[in-house]
Amino acid sequence: MTSSLRLSRRAADLHASPIRDILAVVSRPGMVSFAGGLPAAETFPDFSLAAVPREAAQYGASEGDWALRERVAADLAERDLPVPPTQVLILSGSQQGIDLVAKLFVDPGTPVAVETPTYLAALQVFRFFGARFVEFSAQDHTSLVGARPTVAYVNPTFQNPTGYCYTADERAALAATCERHGIVLFEDDPYRDLCYEACARRPLCANIAQGSWIYQGSFSKSLAPGLRLGYLACSPDLLPLLTHLKQAADLHSNRLSQALVLQALDDPARAVRSARLNAFYRERRDGFAALLDQHFGDLADWRLPAGGLFFWLQLRHERASLDTRALLPRALERQVAFMPGEPFFASEHGGRGCLRLNFSHAAPEAAARGLAALAAVVREAG
């Protein structure tokens, strides 16, 4: 039967998210998942619905509840990014921020600068709107000067997928390039609170004196992803436009989630909880690193991440050019899931021989079993 649907031209670029497809199978009994950036469930705070005001069940402002915007603005000021609450927009997860920015700036053929590699769900959104990608890195962003992209999307603190954290000099240099050439700097910073070693975390946007910028964060990693809540702050010229786009998307973010997040942010024990959270993940990271030495020591290279949730592995020698997507079905048969490297690259052939492994979700015993199985799959492929 021939379909009579008249879809938009844009619908032709609709593709499933690789990570969401993988997460659909990781709930199988006995499956060990290193695939998604899932926080450990035992780290989620105890929320009290009894303390949520009755008015949180009513419609609210598209920009977000004022008390939460004030709290976010106060936190940003502590990061050396002082903005008034009127420049803060509460989001239905930071993924919504990427969607709003793409809607605002990207037409088919619009040049958009992305790191190589970068967050795969950002690539998915920008592709959907027809972006033409310009690739750069923390150490080399000369491509931005020649291509003059409209927007530069950057994930500088415990980057997804590599875990890399920009130095202070790299942050200042990229911000200066964007400001000098009229490029909107879009800084995505969801992992900054998960910090296990001292490193530079001052927002790149704090270096911009003139020009347009967007800085966004998330409560998914430090509190709970099921809340689906994030935020952005931006230069004054962009806030009305992004607010109008959000009004058309979902009217406003979940007010019950906003009340619960504010409850957690105002908790006098917030700093103590943050220290415990980082101690928990530091222990998981170190245990995972020891298991990698045991199972992948002769197979791959990696760096110990100073924060965030991921290890980024580069396979060695004859396996360095493997299409790791082909390894995934074999790994799933062995009851272990991981993220292949290829989807994190804008270019067609990037990411060969690379794997992203999440260390936060699997308990140590499961992680040991999963890494042993994954290493066996890699050895057989070589």
Which helices and strands occur, and which strands form pairs?
Blueprint: H1 18-23, E1 32-33, H2 66-78, E2 88-91, H3 94-105, E3 111-115, H4 120-128, E4 132-136, H5 142-147, E5 151-154, H6 168-180, E6 184-188, E7 213-218, E8 230-234, H7 239-250, H8 255-265, H9 270-296, E9 300-301, E10 310-315, H10 328-333, E11 336-337, E12 339-340, E13 354-358, H11 364-381
Strand content: 5-15%
* Number of E-type strands: 13
Number of domains: 2
Q: What spatial form do the alpha-carbon principal axes imply?
A: globular
CATH class of the largest domain: Alpha Beta
Which stretches of 5+ consecutive residues score pLDDT under 50? none
CATH topology of the largest domain: Aspartate Aminotransferase, domain 2
Let me know the largest β-sheet: 7 strands, mixed
The SSE string, one letter per element, is HEHEHEHEHEHEEEHHHEEHEEEH
User: Helix/strand/pairing class, anyone?
Assistant: alpha/beta
Put simply, the count of helices is 11
Q: Tell me the CATH architecture of the largest domain.
A: 3-Layer(aba) Sandwich
> What Rg do the Cα atoms give?
21 Å
State the helical fraction.
25-40%
Q: Describe the strand arrangement of the main beta sheet, using strand numbers.
A: 2-8-7-6-5-3-4
**Mean pLDDT, all residues:** 93
Q: Give the N-terminus to C-terminus distance in angstroms.
A: 45 Å
